[in-house]
Amino acid sequence: MSKPRIVVGMSGGVDSSVAALLLKEQGYDVVGLFMKNWEDDDDDEYCSSRQDLIDAVSVADRIGIEIEAVNFSKEYKDRVFSEFLREYKSGRTPNPDVLCNAEIKFRAFLDHAMAMGAERIATGHYAQVRETDSLCQLLKAEDGSKDQSYFLYRLNQGQLSKTLFPLGGIYKREVREIARKAGLANFAKKDSTGICFIGERPFREFLNRYIPSEPGEIWAVDGRMVGRHMGLMFYTIGQRQGLGIGGTRDGDGDAWYVAAKDMPNNRLIVVQGREHNALLSNTLSSSDLNWISGEAPHCNWVYNAKTRYRQKDAPCTINSVSADKCEMAFAESQWAVTPGQSVVIYESRVCLGGGIIQ
Predict the structure, then answer these.
(1) How far is residue 111's CA from residue 118's CA, in Å, rounded to a whole number?
(2) pLDDT of 254-270, one tens digit each?
(3) Which domains does the chain have, with CATH numbers?
(4) So which residues are the catalytic ones?
(5) Separation CA 8–CA 123 (nearest Å)
(6) What gap in Å lies between CA 352 and CA 358, rounded to an integer?
(7) pLDDT tens-digit readout, 174-208
(8) In this structure, what is the dihedral angle of CA atoms 20, 166, 80, 55, given to the nearest 10 degrees?
(9) DSSP H helices in the chain
(10) CB atoms within 10 A of CB 75
């Protein structure tokens, strides 16, 4: 009796390629699916989708599986990009990769795969799913330096129960070695960086095409005007580069950092010194919540949380939680907590869910 059909999201990168290879070696009926999510200006300078498709087809041919290309650009524009622009217009800094996973890779892609007769889907994410008697848990990957559970916290029980993460228990260096030994041409291919649809293009120039910029004044937190900004949407809390205001005139050369945005007055508020109090927060409020188990965590228990992807786990407690709001306190001050980004909560290695920082 043949094993079930698994449809693997193949991006042309080494991670998804090895995910497909491992499942094929385990005897599954594996089919690759290449997703095209962006086509406004799909040229070779910044958008590598043409080369990525070539790489994905090459891998599929090498490991002996079928591959199909599907265009989700309309779904992407409606469900991810429109929200991305809305958030920037309101002065927040969104994380479109989080929304892309929830709306495209684990919704549009999942639906398409089920229509292809798949029992499950698989991706090259570094994360793990643990199935218990009553629910599916999202766990951190074995390779802590590559763990991507932060980007997956918006998944639900239905999505997780249909998902496999073949790389969750192995390290990135092993993945490249598996690819090399299997003769996959992309074994040394550089990992993609940048926002999922933008690539590595100049961000300011890209955003300006969709939102008109409104230059304004830069004010120090003590009430002095110290320069001019290009438009509030181009800056994020904690940003140091690109402010163009140098140090102070009296010789105190501490770097300037973005501390806040005064939207009504179109002012960028800055402070000097990375450890300025205006950049530190002991509490935060989040909304647009998603709890993977379907139930909110307990109040007053000690958990860990991340307010940005590369941050270390920070001990915290949940002071109150309702259907649409979560109030949290941290044992130590958190640096540059940014509205629009995600706070993701963990109990040991289990990702419980999270919300959008307000």
Answers:
(1) 10
(2) 999 999 999 999 999 99
(3) 5-181 (3.40.50.620), 213-274 (2.30.30.280), 279-357 (2.40.30.10)
(4) 100, 196
(5) 6
(6) 19
(7) 999 999 999 999 998 888 765 655 566 677 888 88
(8) -30
(9) 14-25, 49-63, 73-76, 82-89, 96-100, 109-115, 157-160, 172-181, 203-208
(10) 19
